[in-house]
Write a structure and sequence with these properties.
Length: 454
């Protein structure tokens, strides 16, 4: 529910309810259901061999799905504006838990990524925490995002510190996903193309150095290069993944009827779940699942476009980027276009922490679509708002309306009348009066009047 200022003269407020985006909700729930089906299909054999029962691993995934659905329901009802007040504690908690994983985490295959005997992977929840903090930080800086000293450098230091703690676990793929999501948020918050190019060059150099330093990353890169240099010496995992994906044909062999998952295809429940899905449901089923992800992205971006604050829009963009980045990285690796990254498929791969974090994040996006219940100034008629005289760090003036117009705003996702935040708007709006452009106004003001038809 959002509050609209309907009359500038009598100060009358009216509550207007915003409907829930049921398409987005349905897609998230349907992807969760497909993921549970694939969880049982890909683990019943392995679970029977390793745990003595075909339902042990599947049961854990169902448990986390139930907890995730509860988190989804609660976060979709909670006013997302509260996350901005908690942005700093959330970020501090993320840093502390990453340090705790490094010091006290479980050693599995030479890495420390999990806690509680491998049942919890904190880096999955850290993705959402970083997105919330980055959205709050970018929304507060606004025009300063385009500054190197006040925008790019401090933002890069924040994201870099998180990625550093994740890389030394080591978990390079999660750091890549966080970097991609943060870069997209930074660009859409108003950064220039030059800044984006500098970020891309810096990230490429950093990850190139890490690939050369981390033995497992170097091995995966060498295995990938053999696919193109000497196909006869193709890595076993890559070969089996391609065989599995291609053996399903157009309509697949049927759910649960994959033969490759019975000891031939490594990690069929995580890295290679799309290959098993292609074998069991065929090309038609794979296209259907990819269409669900496309619908998830479309509705998420629509929610971002219609969000009532820049903070909410940036969170929605970050969550959508997180999902699509993981999907594309896994899909391209399955098709042997890029090296295997170890990135799980959102909603589909077995992993309780990943599924819980995704459902929690999806609930936050639903809350953004419903709007903030906090005091908000969002005029429903064409009105003129004076520029605030307040100052921010660096001595630059802060606009009372961060995205007052579509064509002139530096915030690329901006829509008409979005305020930067409910709290800052109430502090910065000094008075609201009908907008009547007269002679003597600048060309920018005249363009605003033509854009809004006044």
């Amino acid at each position: 529910m959002t509050k609209h200022y309907t009359n500038a003269r009598n100060s009358h407020w009216q509550d207007v309810a915003r409907p829930v985006d049921w398409v987005f909700v349905s897609v998230a729930l349907l992807l969760t259901a497909v993921g549970l089906v694939m969880a049982y299909s890909t683990t019943f054999f392995w679970s029977h061999v390793s745990e003595g029962s075909p339902l042990v691993i599947f049961g854990r995934q169902v448990l986390f799905a139930g907890l995730g659905l509860l988190a989804f329901a609660l976060s979709s009802r909670l006013d997302y504006g509260l996350y901005r007040r908690l942005a700093i504690p959330i970020m501090a908690g993320c840093l502390l838990v990453l340090i705790g994983v490094i010091l006290f985490g479980d050693d599995v295959f030479g890495a420390r990524r999990t806690l509680l005997n491998g049942s919890v992977q904190p880096s999955e929840l850290v993705k959402l925490g970083v997105i919330i903090y980055a959205a709050a930080w970018l929304a507060s800086r606004r025009d300063q995002v385009r500054s190197i000293s006040n925008g790019l450098l401090p933002f890069g230091a924040i994201i870099g510190s998180v990625c550093f703690l994740i890389v030394i676990q080591p978990d390079l793929s999660t750091a890549v996903v966080i970097t991609i999501a943060a870069a997209v948020m930074f660009f859409l918050a108003g950064a220039s193309w030059q800044q984006l190019g500098l970020v891309a060059l810096t990230a490429a150099a950093a990850f190139g150095m890490l690939i050369a330093t981390l033995p497992y990353a170097t091995a995966r890169l060498n295995e990938f290069l053999k696919v193109w240099q000497t196909p006869d010496e193709m890595n076993y995992h890559i070969r089996q993944s391609l065989i599995t994906l291609g053996s399903g044909g157009l309509f697949g062999n049927g759910i649960g009827a994959s033969g490759q998952k019975f000891g031939y295809l490594p990690t069929p429940h995580t890295d290679s779940v799309l290959a098993v899905l292609g074998e069991e449901l065929g090309l038609i089923g794979l296209i259907f699942v990819l269409a669900l992800f496309a619908l998830f992205v479309w509705r998420g971006l629509r929610i971002a476009q219609q969000a009532d604050t820049a903070f909410g829009a940036l969170i929605a963009i970050g969550v959508v980027t997180w999902v699509i980045a993981q999907l594309l990285l896994n899909l391209l690796a399955t098709l042997a276009i890029i090296p295997f990254t170890g990135v799980p498929v959102p909603f589909l791969s077995v992993g309780g922490s990943s599924l819980f974090a995704l459902l929690l994040a999806s609930g936050v996006v639903v809350s953004i679509g419903r709007g903030s219940h906090l005091p908000n100034l969002e005029p429903t008629s064409i009105e003129y708002t004076e520029t605030a005289k307040a100052k921010v760090k660096g001595g630059k003036p802060v606009r009372a309306h961060s995205a007052f117009r579509r064509r002139n705003s530096r915030t690329r996702f901006a829509r008409a009348y979005r305020v930067e935040s409910a709290h800052s708007a109430s502090a910065f709006f000094r008075r609201v009066q009908p907008f009547k452009p007269e002679r003597g106004h600048s060309s920018t003001v005249r363009r605003r009047s033509r854009w809004y038809g006044t």
